[in-house]
Amino acid sequence: MAAAKPTGTQGKRSRRTRKAGPSVDDKSSEMPLSLERIVAASVELLDAQGVGGLTMRRLADHLEAGAMSLYWHVDNKEEVFGLALDAVLEYRAPQHVGETESWRDDVVHMLEDWRASMLRHPWSALLLPRLALGPNMLNRLELLSRALSRAGVADADLNAATWSVWNHVMGATITRGNFDRSDDDRNAAQIRLAEFGERYPTIERSRLLLEDDWDGVFRKGLDLLLDGLSSRKG
Amino acid sequence: MAAAKPTGTQGKRSRRTRKAGPSVDDKSSEMPLSLERIVAASVELLDAQGVGGLTMRRLADHLEAGAMSLYWHVDNKEEVFGLALDAVLEYRAPQHVGETESWRDDVVHMLEDWRASMLRHPWSALLLPRLALGPNMLNRLELLSRALSRAGVADADLNAATWSVWNHVMGATITRGNFDRSDDDRNAAQIRLAEFGERYPTIERSRLLLEDDWDGVFRKGLDLLLDGLSSRKG
DNA sequence: ACCTGAACACCGTTCAAGT
DNA sequence: ACCTGAACACCGTTCAAGT
């Protein structure tokens, strides 16, 4: 998928540098396009404008390139999304992972790092469920599965355990992205709820839609799952 | 949100019926637009073509209406999505709910019904995490929260428990939607994985990406959560 | 090898106008 | 009250052409 068109040999642009003069300040206007630059610009644009804000034309503009130049480097917009997503999901595991005696700490660390990466780029949680997995995401999945296996989850239960944990991270991150609105929005939602009077008494009373401790929700749910897993392996 | 523009008084279309002749078969061409018809057509279109296939123009065509007529009934495309989504999430609770002694059966039934509704309309799982909650979804959330409360979850833990269960359903449904591909696709994915050789040994060996028992995965994860909840309430 | 503009077949939405 | 077409400001992508 990220098969990567030619890369590496994108040098020799000598002739062009002179036209713009000696200004060190000429930004990226003189840099040739490259997959790396395209991906970096995509992430910037997505961070700034969200999924709907990334447009092939805007992306090209952002790179000060002709509108259609991107198509030499990339097959289509879907590929741009895929590359941007995987770029943001890179995982640098601390060395100590796997050496600790506590598998649980390893798992919690990996998952919190994953969640943090997605929260830093809110569009990623929306994109991940509809794209193929890139190498960085596959790597995270591999490490997660390995950690659970090392923790003593039986082979027969390993996939269900892996998917359950994956689902929890995905669900929690997506949910937070959708409900972690501004205080104003939250208050408006609660008021709207109150207007319905008798229809939603429980979630009105518990102020469910006003949740503001998403980190806590994530942790508590994860604890339930991990407790279940460790009690089950006996 | 679903505030509903005028509805009900959409009768008197006497003059038009004669032009088309006596044919009983003249389909919807004579019916005036209405929110209900628009929503029904949206669901049809989404079922047939997916999220990307729903277009205001196509929707109008489908309704044999002028291209821009929809805008009298609806503010914008986002509202159409919201109405279609909530339409598909209606819940008809069986009467016995709440009378059973088994809270756990109630919860499991509600969640499997919810998941089944979303799987019947795969676009709904993609849409739900980015739209405001409509009345039907709020109703499901209310019933879920109430069931957990009745089950003995302490008020202080109720919201975290509700969100955890919600996250599991969302995550599991979205995941299945993304990975439950055809056999061909799955085999291709596994082969691609094998090509990476040493990079993903665990998920290659466990054939994680070839998962085909998504119902089982959903159930097992849910059991872990509910076990945790019932053990915690003591 | 790399980039470009023009062109095609679409979008969502506004608006002034029709009945 | 309800519907319409024309128009505006966009899209993604193809293609023949440039260097």
Automatic annotation (TrEMBL), chains A, B:
<keyword id="KW-0805">Transcription regulation</keyword>
<dbReference type="Pfam" id="PF00440">
    <property type="entry name" value="TetR_N"/>
</dbReference>
<keyword id="KW-0678">Repressor</keyword>
<dbReference type="InterPro" id="IPR009057">
    <property type="entry name" value="Homeodomain-like_sf"/>
</dbReference>
<feature type="region of interest" description="Disordered">
    <location>
        <begin position="1"/>
        <end position="29"/>
    </location>
</feature>
<feature type="domain" description="HTH tetR-type">
    <location>
        <begin position="32"/>
        <end position="92"/>
    </location>
</feature>
<keyword id="KW-0238">DNA-binding</keyword>
<protein>
    <submittedName>
        <fullName>TetR/AcrR family transcriptional regulator</fullName>
    </submittedName>
</protein>
<dbReference type="InterPro" id="IPR050109">
    <property type="entry name" value="HTH-type_TetR-like_transc_reg"/>
</dbReference>
<dbReference type="InterPro" id="IPR036271">
    <property type="entry name" value="Tet_transcr_reg_TetR-rel_C_sf"/>
</dbReference>
<dbReference type="Pfam" id="PF02909">
    <property type="entry name" value="TetR_C_1"/>
</dbReference>
<comment type="function">
    <text>TetR is the repressor of the tetracycline resistance element; its N-terminal region forms a helix-turn-helix structure and binds DNA. Binding of tetracycline to TetR reduces the repressor affinity for the tetracycline resistance gene (tetA) promoter operator sites.</text>
</comment>
<keyword id="KW-0804">Transcription</keyword>
<dbReference type="InterPro" id="IPR003012">
    <property type="entry name" value="Tet_transcr_reg_TetR"/>
</dbReference>
<dbReference type="InterPro" id="IPR001647">
    <property type="entry name" value="HTH_TetR"/>
</dbReference>
<feature type="DNA-binding region" description="H-T-H motif">
    <location>
        <begin position="55"/>
        <end position="74"/>
    </location>
</feature>
<dbReference type="InterPro" id="IPR004111">
    <property type="entry name" value="Repressor_TetR_C"/>
</dbReference>
